[in-house]
Amino acid sequence: MPRVSKVQTDKNRASIELIAARLFLEHGIDGVSVAELMGAAGLTHGGFYGHFDSKESLAAIACGKAFEQSAQRRQEKIDHTDSPEAALSEISNAYLRSEHRDNPGNGCPVLALATDIARTAADKPVRAIYLEGVKQMLATLSSLSPAANKKTTQKTAQTGNHPLEPQDNAAQQAAMIRMAILVGTLTLARATAGDPLSEAFLAAGRAGIDQSVAHSTE
Amino acid sequence: MPRVSKVQTDKNRASIELIAARLFLEHGIDGVSVAELMGAAGLTHGGFYGHFDSKESLAAIACGKAFEQSAQRRQEKIDHTDSPEAALSEISNAYLRSEHRDNPGNGCPVLALATDIARTAADKPVRAIYLEGVKQMLATLSSLSPAANKKTTQKTAQTGNHPLEPQDNAAQQAAMIRMAILVGTLTLARATAGDPLSEAFLAAGRAGIDQSVAHSTE
DNA sequence: TGTACATCAGTGAACGCGCGTTCACTGATGTAC
DNA sequence: TGTACATCAGTGAACGCGCGTTCACTGATGTAC
Q1: Is B196 in CB contact (< 8 Å) with chain A?
Q2: What whole-number distance in Å separates Cα of residue B68 and Cα of residue B103?
Q3: What is the per-residue pLDDT across B28-49, written as a single tens digit (0 to 9) for each?
Q4: Of chain A's two ends, which shows fewer C-beta atoms within 10 Å, N or C?
Q5: Residue of B127, B169, B181 to mutate, testing the A interface (most A Cβ within 10 Å of its Cβ)
Q6: Pick from B59, B50, B60: nearest CA to B10
């Protein structure tokens, strides 16, 4: 049953990318073979190279897809809430939940791919895409920082001479600390899953975010 | 030049374990082959199975070795300082340094192996050893918690009826938040290494630990 | 202490296996008339 | 609109390679006398 319609071909390609994004987050890029990937998409391995130059090339594309989905989920939470504080709280609570811990495939790519990326050569395309994803998540957390909201409002009224004002630095630093708590907590919760410690890490992480917000607004 | 003295045999075995600990932290367990490992120890791959049952078996042993070394480094910092606060500060600052970021092989195994362990089946021996390592690091951070120091002193005078008093929970939670900041920050710093963001994460992480300590002592 | 021999740590070729990738082939799709 | 044919998405066997593991072999070590 070879030669498939143009529409089906595009669907197949999109399906491979989506499945790759999920499987790469779950098992790491090296943890998934091309044959597994294609099998999960209902195809055989030989057709892979009609769609992609190499597995490495797909890795970069799938990584980008994972970041897109992740950013979209964050944006939905921002849209569904009526204040930056509520959005930050919803994003953090969803992040530090056992559902997220147990479903890396539909979870945060910043976390799931971090160690793999750290072990990847600096010139690989996937690294640049990953870095962009980190910056995007950081920008979102930064924009939701209580400290930032108080001050960037008045800043937009100023003439924007410097690209990075001190208050932006403060907001960015607060966002970085929160991002570290999110990533660190879920990393530890995943690595200790099955032990009571895992739930305790999630609870502590949520408390840590709350403390961080309290620290910003006091 | 086969058959080597008993003393040399033991040295070789210890050398393989030490080199495995370093290489597994650097490249992950699946990222190092038995041949590479043995080559780095100045031996050929065939001799491996005279020392170990399997690569998986060595992984558990080497993981334990890595945790031993890590705990020892922490203990040295505690011994060299004259207060729990100073020890916590020294441990955190050493953790969130670019030297640690750039040398995973001699660094924290909790962080370096976290994602690999999360992807490992629950019944593998290496998981239990990892969990023990996490608990040990957490216990140390807990014992250095400013909140804990104030209160456990008076607790030792009490009759220890409950194994976990509320103040212990508070100290443990504070330690978990700090551990998440340490692990999360360095994870992000490693994954963004080469970009200015990486140093910014390290600086933010140090600030986050300081804030966390301030929050405990206020 | 010196000699004869058994032991066994390390060697390197070989194993089966799964990997990423290639390629001749197939037959439905899409196009030219 | 209907027919003839070129295109090309997907198939599955095959490739070279490196992996973890095995094993017959070697020769210095360690032991028994």
Answers
A1: no
A2: 17
A3: 999 999 999 999 999 999 999 9
A4: N
A5: B181
A6: B50
The Å distance, CA of B4 to C1' of D32, is 20
CA distances from B118 to A26, A109, B42, B111, B184 (A): 10, 15, 32, 11, 15
Residues in CB range of A196: below 8 A, 6 or more apart: none
Distance in angstroms (rounded) separating the CA atoms of residues B28 and A34: 21
Residues in Cβ contact with B183 at an 8 Å cutoff, skipping those fewer than 6 apart: A183, A184, A187, A188, B108, B110, B111, B114
Q: What is the DSSP letter of B151?
A: H
Interface test with A, best of B26, B177, B211 (most A CBs within 10 A): B177
| A150 vs B89: which has the higher pLDDT | B89
Contact check, Cβ <8 Å, A191/B215? no
Q: What is the b/e burial string over A84-98, where b = at least 16 CB atoms within 10 angstroms of the residue's CB?
A: eeebbbbbbeebbee
Closest CA to the C1' of C27: that residue is A2
Show the CA angle centred on residue A133, arms to residues A128 and A137, nearest 5°.
150
Span A71-97, average pLDDT: 97
Crossing angle for the helix pair B166-191 and A166-191, to the nearest 10 degrees: 110
- Are residues A180 and B204 in contact, defined by beta-carbon separation less than 8 angstroms? yes
- And the tokens for B70? 């890590």
Neighbours of A120 (CB within 10 A): 18
